Amino acid sequence: MAYGGDGSAYLPHNSKNFENWIVEDVNNAIIENIDCTSTKSNLFISGLSMGGYGALRLGAKHTETYSAISGHSSITDITQMHLFVEEDEALYTEKEQTETSVFDMMLSNKNNLPPTRFDCGKDDLLIEHNRKLHNQLIAQKIPHVYEEFEGAHEWPYWQEHIKKSLLFFNNINT
């Protein structure tokens, strides 16, 4: 079931660098516009669905940038994009496969990963992908928190469980 529309998956494509936009431009905009922040502030990254994929992948890739990572109902590999976008998946696979797989990114940076958590609803179309990522991380002894709750790939689930990310981030000692 495709949801239609297009998306960036926060990967460089279509001659735009969406990854740099999140990792550099958004972070700089926060520092420039919120008085209580600076370059020394802890940064956390979280997202849901495609944004969860972006948060997990970018957090694992840019380990020096983020103090913790969280994702909700996350795509875990670029090969799942067809579930949500109409664009040709080939646009998203310009990078090496290890650059587009959350697991491969976490594995390649496993010794430097910030605290990581993710969750998924038991009725979510991505539940098996999230379970697979969880089991892969266990097999490689990569520390993380994984939780499943009642719910599907929808706003009521995310509105309820975003609190988990905020509490997780609040408990990070950096």
TrEMBL record:
Domain of life: Bacteria
Database matches in InterPro entries: AB_hydrolase_fold, Esterase-like, Mycobacterial_A85_antigen
One example GO MF annotation: acyltransferase activity, transferring groups other than amino-acyl groups
Pfam families: Esterase
Xref: SUPFAM superfamilies: alpha/beta-Hydrolases
Protein name: Putative esterase
Species this protein is from: Algibacter lectus
Organism placement in taxonomy: Bacteria, Pseudomonadati, Bacteroidota, Flavobacteriia, Flavobacteriales
